[in-house]
Specification:
The protein is built from 17 helices and 22 strands. By secondary structure, the chain is an alpha+beta fold. The strands form three sheets. Strands 5, 6, 7, 8, 9, 10, 11, 12, 13, 14, 15 and 16 form a twelve-stranded mixed beta sheet that branches. A six-stranded mixed beta sheet has the order 20-19-18-17-21-22, sandwiched between helices. Strands 2-3-1-4 form a four-stranded antiparallel beta sheet, with helices on one face.
Amino acid sequence: MILSFEFNYISQNGLLENFLEAICKDFNIFYKIGKSKNIITLKVEADEEALTNFSNFLSQRLPLSIFFKSSAVNVVDDMSVNEFNIEPFALNLPFTPKVLTQLNPLMNNEIGIETFNAKGILLNGISFEKDYDELFNQAAQIIKNGNSLHVNSASGSYKLAKIDETFKEEDEFLVIPTDLSVIERMVVIKENEIKAIASLEKPSLHLRVNSLYRAKEILPTNKVKMKLADELILLKICEKLYADGIEFLYRLNCKSDGFENKLEIDGEFVSIPQIEVCVLENGEILIVSGDGYSAPLLKDNLKKFEKPAHAQFASIMQEHNLFDDKVSCFYLSKSHDDKIMHISEKTGLLELIKFPVIQSFEDILEKIKSSHQGAKLIESYKNSFPEIYDKILHVKIPNNMPESMYSIWGIVSVILGFADNVQDGANTLIDNAEEYVGQKGPRIDYLLLDKDSIKSDFNMLKLIRSAMSFKLAGTDDITLSFGIMESLAYFVSDTSDSCRENLSSQKTLLAGSIFSSKRFTELVCKNIVVNTQVCFNKELPIDN
């Protein structure tokens, strides 16, 4: 009897085929593995009882991956597959289901490079080489008593402590739930996000704190970055603390200087990649940061481009094999110049829309006042919001800011009184917009300087005037922030429609770190017409 398993695995990193081979060898079954694009096929031959046992073994040993999309199994007549040479997996991984059953936290995974070459673990200078249970009891007790523990191991160099009423950390920290079951006691999380956070890669997710936990007034923000333990050492400490009723820890990356309590490896180790993802409603997973699980060839190709926008455009085309298509790309970044681009065999690469930034608030106000209506707007705004207006005149726009919508949002946030500086302004606007509970916001003007051309610079003054008008009309900050975000989503979808109609664009590519905002990305995807396919990076980060 022959079973054929088909797996849709969207990365070229070689992880899945190596896992399948290791599982088949451990079970000692006759197998063949084939590959065609994203589909990896495993065929195994044995009697019915052995195949039943193998199927159970496979389900226990094969980890869930953020790149693993679907699977199917069928009874077939022959063992023929599109065979290929399986290269050894050359990346480092968090713990796998196989090593999870072992008592030794320094056990290396069945595939990938060796994480540890060590004889034991040191806790405050004392070496533990066998009695690891006692090690984890002592480490957990340190944290339970309200002290911090510095950990230096494969998942990083960081401070670890419990989150309770005494929490005062203001630097950027990660929340570590001590068990998967407690996550929803702190944050709002969907089922597909739970699957992602529990996957083999153990990514972090940016999640909204729920109303019950907010009421405790423990955390300084309404959103947190959260991940599960990604190596056995941290997992075992979490298990001990969970048994003692402690649900959440925080992790702050730092050096070990000044710490009284230290846990470190007695030997050598290789770091585990750290990645952050955003999970859309349809289950698509976007890698926000971290390329540790991306295929080396894809990462190398990014280095061929001088402009980040061009590199990201090319990377999506490569991952989706779009080089023969007519495609448009919307690159909206927090750290680089934004560009809206189009490419086809006939036109070559066209840079359609850029986002120039006026470099001082004085210039912005003067340009608005140059028209009669603009002068009346500025005067009304000055009289209605004198404190905000005075602050605007004393804020500097950094001269190294990228020419991007993110920079423009930062400037708009200062003008509207959302933030005291441009650097924090865009994030404040995004946080406000994500707090909005309604479905529709005010329509803010997103226009081009040349309204009759698809190739033009963006008109940031029209956006600012429009937003100021809604502020004067009494629109609250949360609603206005959402309107600014939603209107950009409409601008992207309208421009995508224009590219389809005027340039015969067949697909719309979305790239850049602004798309790490789940709400913004959902708005964009919802508004782009049904017959235009939207493409993101599959395994590379959405920005570089």
